[in-house]
Amino acid sequence: MTGERPPRAAAVWRHPNHRDPSSLPVELRRPTVPDHVRAWVARQAGAPVVRVRRLAGASSAAVHAVLLADGSRLVLRRYVWPGFLDDEPDAPAREVDALDFAAVHHLPAPIVVAADLTGGDTGEGLPALLMSHVPGRAEANPDVAVLAETLAAIHDTDPAGYPHDYFAWNVERMTGPPPGAIRPALWETAISVWRDARPVYRSAFIHRDYHPGNVVWRGGRVTGVVDWVNACRGPIGCDLVTCSGNLVDLAGPAAAARFIAAYTALTGETLDPYWELAAILEDDHDTACPARVAEREAALVRAVAALRG
Prior knowledge:
- Helices cover about 35% and strands about 15% of the residues.
- It has 9 helices and 10 strands.
- The chain has helices spanning about 35-45, 80-85, 90-105, 145-155, 185-195, 235-250, 255-265, 275-280, 290-309; strands spanning about 50-55, 60-70, 75-80, 110-115, 130, 135-140, 205, 215-220, 220-225, 230-235.
- The protein has a 5-stranded antiparallel sheet with strand order 1-2-3-5-4. Strands 6-8-9 form a 3-stranded antiparallel sheet, covered by helices on one side.
- α8 (about 275-280) runs antiparallel to α9.
- The longest helix has 19 residues, at about 290-309.
- The termini are far apart.
């Protein structure tokens, strides 16, 4: 025996958006796509499809990497989960608008190759979007300074002419404390503030789902930002809260704080605590388990306290 330690096994990469596959609708778990959809991809790309594989991290649409016979790669996004389209029937068109707008303004986003917003061309009867492939992978614990710099560049884009404006989610549903609330009076107060005390904000071009799971890296640099379906003209606080909240879960509170500090240092913009409260209340509480409701209630206590100064 030499006394040498065995080599340490390489850490297994897991997408920041990872969910137990059994928790996903079956439509999002399929490893491949129907033959008539492959044929549509081949027609649009001008080359036969060699291989299709499911990409990790998608939770509202089926996303597959497509390898073509000429060696090029594309990404196919199909809105196959009916429940998602029931709630947001215009989501596919909004994503095309966002990607086209991002391309015009040279933002790091996929390029639209083709779109079938009705599913008539693919023969599937559901919207499909074919776009360029972004090389690299999402990281759960990224360089927060670069993460902030990338977001600042998005927010610095002139939003004039972009056709979609911010609106609060779940306003119709969030009319009172969710089932299992321990402090219903707190929820009532927070809902009142949320509805009646929105601060004046500078309207910027925002991603509205900006977080580590939607930022792709290679070699320490950002190669692209994906999943633009919610992009709109709206408050930067939405993006800051979404990203910092995900960083808390993925990399810890210190990383989230460094991200906010880096963004403020770059832009001079600070995070209004109103948007932390809004993020909690705009979440879907209808199906939340008691533990999740308790977790949100604790966050709501902090947000209300911050607003009261």
